[in-house]
Amino acid sequence: MNPNILNVLIYMQERMAKQGLSCETTYMSFCKCSRHLDNIAQQYNISQQDAQQAVREALSMGLLRYLYGNNDLHTIVFTQRGLTMVLESKSGVKEKSVPQIHLNNCTNIQIGDCNTMNIQQQLEMKIDQSTGTPQEKEKAKSLLKTVMLDNILAPIIGALAGASAAAFLEG
Known about the structure:
Number of domains: 2
Number of helices: 7
Helix content: 55-70%
CATH architecture of the largest domain: Orthogonal Bundle
CATH class of the largest domain: Mainly Alpha
Oligomer: single chain
CATH topology of the largest domain: Arc Repressor Mutant, subunit A
Structural class: mainly alpha
Largest sheet: 3 strands, antiparallel
Strand content: 5-15%
């Protein structure tokens, strides 16, 4: 792993902590005109381009993410994985890993880094196996599709799935 990635994460976390800001919700800008790139370059004796490359690599590794999904370097925030990495590196203590729940178009739920399951498809199979009439089953599938695409319910479903996965892992 590029050692500058950890430097970028540490810089972000320390800067936010110094200002009393939340690492989960506060964003930083790493565009070419950003003072943060200059500060990182000076603090860690690297070039501004190396600092920007480290930000891009951290994004591709899932340690940082775009706040608004528009793929510019103006609104970068920590992921839980990135924040955990920087806190572990500073404390020397490895935290217990709890799976991350990511909703992708609300039809696929990803638990962890590689375990993807199509929850909508699995629920539709359960509906098909139920004892309802064909009309009731189609109505249930239609309602399910509406729920899975709803912008308000999607985060709630993700939170419930995360809580369920964490409870399952804790045994």
